[in-house]
User: What shape does this take?
Amino acid sequence: MKRVSIVTLGCKTNQFESAGMTESLVKEGFEIVPFGDEADICVINTCTVTARTDAESRRLIRRAHRRNPSAVIVVTGCYAQLSPELFREFPGVSLIIGNSEKRDLVELLRVADVKPTVRVADISRERHADPLLLETFAEHTRAFLQVQNGCDSWCSYCIVPHVRGRSRSVSPDRALEGMRTFAARGFREVVLTGIHLGAYGLDLSPPSTLFDLVARAERERIVPRLRLGSIEPTEISADLIELLANADTLCPHLHIPLQSGDDRILAAMNRPYTTTFFRAVVEKLAAAVPTIFLGTDIIAGFPGETDEAFQNGYRFLESLPFASFHVFPFSPRHGTPAATMPGRVPAHVIKERAEALRNLSAEKKNRFFEEFLGKELDVLLLEQEENGVLKGLSRNYIPVSIPCDAARINDEVKVRVTEVEKDFVLGTAMS
Assistant: This one.
């Protein structure tokens, strides 16, 4: 039995696709082992969103070869989609496949040779979402379900449309069937994922929407907990806000990318909204769902970001009810308009701004957690540490740790919050 290790970088879509590759390999009789263990085949599912993820992808490929010099190394994911020829020069790499070819991994392994084989199709020609079918997931409590792929937005800094293709959706019936399959196998939470999740259904005939899909899943109570991935502010309708406010299964948690809190920079980014519009959406959400966890993305040091623009953005973030945000130092991606824009911000300034934003995020997260001191949260227990402590996740996305008692992994329990730590809260399970 051949042993396979898989390592994944990047987004939840990549994680879903790695899970799909894992399942297809297991069905063919391969043994899955942790990355870094002795293996016959090593799969690196790459990301190319930033220069940092590029570097990490290259590092992991070299590490795989050092650890397993005779192994077949497979490079896939967005970096492979963008620059397949680059990986021909890496020692040990036998197979380079694009994002569409992930579903054919088992078959392609049969033709892998000492000489690197490249199988990367023109993803811009893809017109149908054809995600890998999953019946299980690496986690035993939460599962990611890919319902959409690709993006048509073409933000000026973003390489994703080049490596993921046009927006395309799975049918509502197929998406709902995916939820039912996970629920039948005992998963308590399903996270809907996509590259541009809010565009779900618009490419279908007849057209549908993400709200339609989620509302149907809510009505049918398919899974105990349903969670949405990232969604753009322009795609948060009044109907979706009302659904979040009254839902039994849809979790009060949204990630809404901002990218900049300065209107001039937003325009340069080709983001289709203003700060005024963004504020209105976020404040409506917070008013309708007081317990909601709101996260966002922010880019530090975009070309043309003056000190004034940065301060505008900082104050804007400070004033909004975010619980946390992901901070990305600007990283020029070859082939995007932003890569050649004037007004490049010095690296040391970008680093300082990113650090200031991360500190603000930490302060906001702490304040959000403190709002729940003495209150009860519904917590799905995910794992148990060696010291017996159980770790879980609340419906509104707060990591929670409790002492081991009668509760078990995959139970959803009521927990009273007793203490706030840096990145989680401590609590006591209620009998």
The domain at 142-369 is CATH 3.80.30.20 (pyruvate-formate lyase- activating enzyme). The CA atoms of residues 157 and 338 lie 5 Å apart.
